[in-house]
Write a structure and sequence with these properties.
The protein is mostly beta strands and 659 residues long. Helices cover 12% and strands 34% of the residues. Among the domains are: 104 residues, no CATH class; 112 residues, Immunoglobulin-like, CATH 2.60.40.10; 140 residues, Immunoglobulins (Immunoglobulin-like, Sandwich); 99 residues, Immunoglobulin-like (Sandwich). InterPro entries: Ig-like_fold.
Length: 659
């Protein structure tokens, strides 16, 4: 996402401020991004481009920044990932094909930012108004972009109205928008107004359909204050007696709470400090009597609380309290009510006590054992005070992105997955069959082409090179599971030469690498080309080609003609000696024996050792000695015989110098 039209210094400065961790799969969507092509079949592929605003390490004014993208989309055949497996073989002789079957498609696109400005600004302050009134502010909205129009939509906000709520601005055009403040309650309001920028996008449920949705948001701040209207309250004196209970002035009549009371409500003056109209004989009364208002005549219709006394508000004279015998409780009736109330109180108390005793007995039987010995575990222990500083700081682990059908694989994401799998140790022994419930569920899944592309099994061609007959050669078949689920690998081998390969079945855990040793043995000389098959989760079939050039047992001589000259310092008769080197170029030990070629005359040459073994890829020196005598021949010949292998003749010459 770089503005390619800018200068070099501007581009370099812009790159230094950008966060380089950009997921390319969110920019490009390919539909379909996986599938199967039959021979000579064509398929239509749809590409979607959705640029996003790049995050920056520093806040800069990038309202006019253009983001140009150049991407490469690679179409690969599933299973052709030889480059990764080549790094796992560590330079082994097993070869892989570096030129995988793929096609690259170059993509170019430009992303323009949404440049929508408001006058007088993004903070709109309304005048103060009263409840029920309305104030308006006219704002000018302008599209600063020179390339694309803007479709906007205002979201509904409490106490504020916008007209028009939605619309479209052409490039380099402006429109007036009216903001109205009509509060429904009293207070100070600071609301965030969200403006959705509408465009076309891909539906997650159906990627083949484009739908209209919000892809960008702009925020405005709306400020308003609502005040209440002041009303003057005129208190009027109550000229008469009120039928309900009221205060001294007769205003603000108290309504009943709906609860039934046994006594009539009496209006009581809480302040008993006034002594203006109190009679002299009543000034020192200390019987705890309550002071009643003079207009609560409703209390005289039926008796109030019989054990309380009431006095008048001014003279403090004990107030007359009429007790109607038709409505008042007698002393026996009041005593009966108290006994009934006490009976039910004691009954509820006994039930509670019985329940607590049963609970205590049950707890005792639970802990009455030799281990607990009647003591409740952790009884009386207090939990420690845990602080945030006591928790160790956990290292942030980058979660592996799920490879679902709606997200394409990128080279960076695939490299991260491969790095996480290959950095682990190699598992040498794994379960041959799914055993746990999770393994059985994972190994029964049908994998998609994208998931199969993340499973590396190879190399696809195992070349043993030149191998010796009767030898045993081993190469490794690497298996890397980059998925977050278990996979079950089953190998089927029909060739007799590969029957020693083991194990033939493995359950590979998630993000794990392992290998299977492929063993090659044969008794037939010639070119070997056979393949074996493998299955993933007993469904997906694959093949591996095995190539070997089987050679017979062979020994090589350093020279075919050996000239013997006298060696100074040796005993007489043995000074003519020299060595010849036997070389084994094969991967199997070779046995040998020397046979002298004699005619009518006896040979004067001897060689040691006359028989033996030469290890694989090693050499051995044999010493030839000429024994001089009267009429001894100065030439000789030996035949190197290799069982089930080649034969080579060695000619020997003795060079005698007469001084």
């Amino acid at each position: 996402g770089t503005d390619l039209q800018g200068s070099t210094d501007a581009v370099l400065q812009d790159l230094s401020l950008k966060n380089k961790d950009v997921d390319v799969s969110t920019l490009i969507l390919c539909v379909p991004d996986q599938g199967t092509l039959l021979p000579y079949e064509k398929s239509l592929i749809t590409l979607y481009f959705s640029p996003e605003k790049l995050e920056r390490d520093f806040e800069v004014n990038d309202s006019s920044l253009i983001q140009d993208y150049v991407l490469f989309l690679r179409f690969e055949s599933v299973g052709k990932r030889g480059g990764c497996l080549q790094s796992l073989s560590d330079g082994a002789t097993a070869t892989t094909r570096s030129h995988s079957c793929h096609v690259d498609l170059a993509l170019m696109g430009s992303g323009f930012p949404v440049m929508l400005t408001f006058k007088p600004g993004t903070v709109i302050d309304f005048k103060e108004c009263y409840l029920g009134e309305q104030t308006q502010v006219v704002c000018t909205m302008k599209n600063e972009s020179e390339f694309l129009p803007v479709t906007f939509s205002f979201r509904k906000t409490a106490h504020f109205n916008i007209s028009p709520e939605r619309g479209k601005l052409k490039k380099k055009s402006e429109k007036e928008v009216t903001f109205s403040f009509s509060p429904h309650q009293i207070g100070t309001f600071e609301m965030k107004q969200i403006i959705d920028i509408i465009g076309t996008g891909v539906d997650k449920n159906n990627v083949n359909v484009l739908k209209t949705k919000s892809f960008h948001q702009i925020y405005l701040t709306l400020l308003g204050v609502c005040k209440s209207k002041q009303k003057s309250v005129l208190f009027a004196i109550n000229p008469g007696l009120t039928p309900l209970i009221s205060n001294a002035t007769g205003q603000f009549v108290a309504r009943g709470t709906g609860q039934l009371s046994d006594t009539a409500p009496v209006a009581i003056l809480k302040s008993t400090q006034t002594q203006i109209h109190t009679h002299r004989k009543n000034r020192n009364c200390k019987d705890g009597a309550l002071i009643a208002f003079p207009n609560d005549r409703a209390a005289s219709l039926r008796p109030s609380e019989w054990n309380k006394k009431y006095r008048t508000i001014f003279t403090k004279t004990e107030r007359y309290n009429y007790i109607d015998p038709d409505f008042a409780y007698t002393h026996s009736e009041r005593q009966l009510r108290e006994e009934c109330k006490k009976y039910y109180t004691d009954f509820v108390s006994r039930l509670r006590q019985r329940r607590l005793e049963k609970e205590a007995s049950r707890q005792f039987h639970i802990y009455n054992n030799p281990v607990s010995i009647g003591i409740k575990p952790a009884e009386g222990l207090k939990s420690p005070n845990i602080s945030i500083a006591n928790f160790p700081k956990e290292k942030l682990q980058h979660k592996m992105l799920p490879s679902d059908d709606s997200c394409m694989l990128t080279s960076r994401k695939l490299a991260a997955i491969v790095s996480k799998s290959t950095n682990k140790g190699v598992w040498s022994w794994l379960s041959p069959m799914p055993s746990s419930t999770q393994e059985k569920a994972d190994c029964s899944l049908t994998l998609t082409h994208k998931q199969l592309h993340q499973i590396f099994i190879g190399p696809s061609t195992i070349d043993f090179g030149d191998v010796c007959v009767y030898s045993t050669t081993t190469r490794e078949l690497h298996i890397v599971n980059n998925l977050s689920i278990h996979i079950w690998i089953q190998i089927e081998i029909e060739a007799v030469e590969l029957h020693e390969t083991s194990p033939l079945s493995q359950v590979v855990p998630p993000l794990t690498k392992t290998h299977i040793p492929v063993v090659f043995e044969t008794n037939t000389v010639g070119m070997f080309k056979r393949s074996f098959s493998y299955k993933i989760n007993n469904q997906h079939l694959g093949h591996v080609l095995v190539i070997a050039n089987v050679m017979p047992v062979e020994l090589q001589l350093s020279t075919r003609e050996l000239i013997l000259t006298p060696v100074p310092g040796c005993l007489a008769g043995t000074e003519f000696r020299r060595t010849v080197q036997l070389c084994n170029p094969r991967n199997h030990p070779a046995a040998f024996s020397w046979r002298p070629v004699t005619g009518d005359r006896k040979s004067a040459f001897s060689i040691k050792p006359t028989r033996g073994f030469v290890e694989a890829y090693s050499d051995l020196e044999c010493e030839v000695v000429w024994h001089p005598a009267f009429h001894s021949p100065e030439t000789g010949e030996f035949t190197l015989c290799v069982p089930k292998g080649n034969s080579i003749k060695l000619k020997c010459f003795a060079k005698v110098t007469i001084h």
